[in-house]
Amino acid sequence: MSSLLVDNIGELVTNDPPGGEDGPLGIWRDAALLVEDGQVAWVGPAREAPAADRRVDAEGAAVLPGFVDSHAHLVFAGDRAAEFAARMAGQPYTGGGIRTTVGATRAASDDELRATVRRLRGEAMRQGTTTMEIKSGYGLTVADEARSLAIAAEVSEETTFLGAHVVPAEYADRPDDYVSLVCGPMLAAAAPHARWIDVFCERGAFDADHARAILACGQAVGLGARVHANQLGPGPGVQLGVELGAASVDHCTHLTDADVDALASAGETWVSGFVPTTVATLLPGAEFSTRSPYPDARRLLDAGVTVALATDCNPGSSYTSSMPFCVALAVREMGMTPAEAVWAATAGGARALRRDDVGVLRRGARADLMILDAPSHLHLAYRPGVPLIRQVLHNGVPR
Ligand SMILES: [Zn+2]
């Protein structure tokens, strides 16, 4: 078994507070980290570092857990740059452009879709993303949803069936029939390639009754629930997600006090043992790209809600794969401190995927980490737009 020592770390963010200094990031100074067999085998002061077969010198820089991007739509064809330009010229975003991408995706070959997924996954990895959830949702036929998920599963174990992204044009006047298709043959074809089921619960997409039916049928075959909720306006999505024990409700841009209360008390109704909660996943790339008001992260954090940050990478409303960009937006525009934003983009994303082996650097965790070209995690927000990710290790392997 070969071992790798990452040595001479100026600031090591572990997200494991008991081992390091106070604060949620669990920071060690002048630290080292040993990787064996793709896992973290040891974390501690550099002067006590054990011997190893190989050594990576961090040269005093900061080392962080790799980003956990818990919300991305990578399986699509075409782009919607013209729609973006129109929005920036003053047209509002309504979500209707999804059908444009559905048409292009259905017309694309498997290899074309695979090339896009791999290109974007590689782009994200170079920016520090070591875990990336990938959704279907631009096929919206049995065959196109199944192939979308099969292609996503080639590069990620976190795949999500989003047949309920929008009602496709051919079902526009009979949405009940489309929900039956999603819960029947489409789910049967998708489930072998998926860990999660998601629904776009929004005016113009799926209402509360449809969303409840779709999530319940997915949960019945063992998929975990997630919800696109309260993005374009107030709605039932957040409270529905909490009620059904969803791992995450995503967007959360328009929240009532009752929505915040529901998120703050999520988990209390669960049985004893490991208490999962419903995470509020904020996607500031979407507000940036649609020139919309940002979600109020401060309000959620002050209420005790677990917050994650993710990219929502998709060709319509947020065509970024950059978690550092989302961290910077969250700090500048959403009331988060740099430490809160970094935690939300790493450990928060892991919670949103109900994972305890990523988003954290402690013995036994997956050796997913990044070495910055900077002395501190603060620089991710302090130096926006600058490529600060010097090196990424994924499963202990330099990428
Ligand atoms: Zn989304």
Number of helices: 13
> What is the number of strand segments?
17
- Round the Cα radius of gyration to an integer and report it: 21 Å
Q: Give the CA-based shape.
A: globular
List the helices and strands and how they pair.
Layout: E1 3-13, E2 27-36, E3 39-45, E4 54-57, E5 62-65, E6 67-69, H1 81-88, H2 98-107, H3 110-126, E7 129-132, E8 134-135, H4 142-153, E9 159-164, H5 175-190, E10 196-201, H6 208-220, E11 224-229, H7 237-243, E12 248-251, H8 257-264, E13 279-282, H9 284-290, H10 297-302, E14 307-309, H11 323-333, H12 338-352, E15 369-372, H13 379-382, E16 389-394, E17 397-398
Parallel strand pairs: 1-4, 1-5, 6-7, 8-9, 9-10, 10-11, 11-12, 12-13, 13-14
Antiparallel strand pairs: 1-2, 2-3, 5-15, 15-16, 16-17
Bound molecules: zinc ion.
